[in-house]
Amino acid sequence: MGDEQELLKQIRQLKLENSQLRNQLENGGVLGKNTIDGDVNTATATQYPLTLDEYHRYGRQMIVEETGGVEGQIKLKNAKVLVIGAGGLGCPSLPYLAGAGIGTIGIVDNDTIDTSNLHRQILHSTNNVGMLKCESAKKYLNMLNPNVKVITYPVRLDNNNAFDIMKDYDLVLDCTDTPVTRYLISDVAVNLGMTIVSASGVRTEGQLTILNFKNVGPCYRCFYPVPPSPNSVSSCSEGGVIGPCIGLVGVMMAVETIKLLLDAYTLDNWEPFLMQYSGFPKQTLRTFRMRGRKNNCKCCGTNPTINKQMIESNEIDYQEFCGARNYNVCSDNERITVKEFEESYHKIDKKDYILLDVRPPHHYDISHLSYTYNVPVKSLRNMNGSLEQLQEVIPDVNKNSEIVVMCRFGNDSRLATRLLKDEFKINNVKDVAGGFFKYIDDIDQTIPKY
Ligand code: ZN
Prior knowledge:
Layout: H1 2-33, E1 35-36, E2 39-40, H2 52-62, H3 69-78, E3 80-84, H4 90-99, E4 104-108, H5 133-144, E5 149-153, H6 162-166, E6 171-174, H7 179-192, E7 195-202, E8 205-211, H8 220-223, H9 236-239, H10 243-261, E9 273-278, E10 284-289, H11 308-312, H12 318-322, E11 335-336, H13 338-346, E12 353-357, H14 361-364, E13 372-374, H15 377-382, H16 387-393, E14 402-406, H17 412-422, E15 428-432, H18 435-442
Helix pairs in contact: 1-3, 2-3, 4-5, 4-10
Zinc ion (ZN) binds at residues 217-219, 221-222, 293-294, 297, 299-300.
């Protein structure tokens, strides 16, 4: 371990010297052009390892003692940082990283911009809806600071590409929103000896931590050896999020990244932590001390069983490990299209059927179809198949009722259809494929989508 640290130190020193030499070569001309009263400025390039633009641009941060001045700036310039996810966390983080002069920034994201992203993903703009998020981010960062090299990866990080992409960077920011990707990033980072700045946010809250600091841990698996139940994971499309709440956490990620690159944390002063931000009801930020590496951790422990070969051969199936929720629980004849729903039920005002909307009430309140019962899928589940309890919210329902079920995207409605048929023993239940939003897209675009 000691030898390894010594080697890392030497490599850093060599990198620094290398960049100083490169700057001397590049800046000889720039400095030479500097004239005072017609005289050539005779200052040597060794005295000024950065370009004049860089002194000007970063001056206000270089004069902050904590940055270590020019030497710190050179560390940032030589750094290569990978941001995985250009969404709610990546967007507020990226401009500060580029603004600070981090030399190379990689961005991994295969998603395109949707209008519903823009309240929190403020790097993107209305003009760029439909554009790849990584490309939109690159465009913005290039305008903010042309000194920064931005490399984009319009792919979803997976077992096959993770090592290839991550190996070229010093540090990684996990700005993703699923446990599947979090475990993958953590495992690969541990195998590559990379530090991770990791955060998450949903609704009004966020969390932030540093994982695998200088390869002494803890890693994501030390914190969460067992993945959370897929039913407890809420993504942004389900749970919603307040823009500035997740934004603040993204900005804090940038602070931690800059601190790491400036060597503010050392092996001596390092203590694992977890910061927790709440936006409501009062804004609070609490920092918890966390336990260090777990000796029995499968990835970073003393006898690790997870290695590159296992990841790349797909021997580790992260989807399966995290138990992705299976929505594929209805047969084709249990489902109808939005068109069939419109023609056979809604438009003709079909009598004696029950239209059941299983979205949460605060979703339902934004927009819904008329003559609808709203019973969230969660409430249905809690009734444990009791028809009496269901009758408390839908008075006319019985085992012979005809029910059509709808939710936002057509996932929860399938689970609800299954519950109604299997647990409540109601036989005539149909799921509307694609849900309320598909209905809006294909049938009635005057209804607000959110
Ligand atoms: Zn671990």
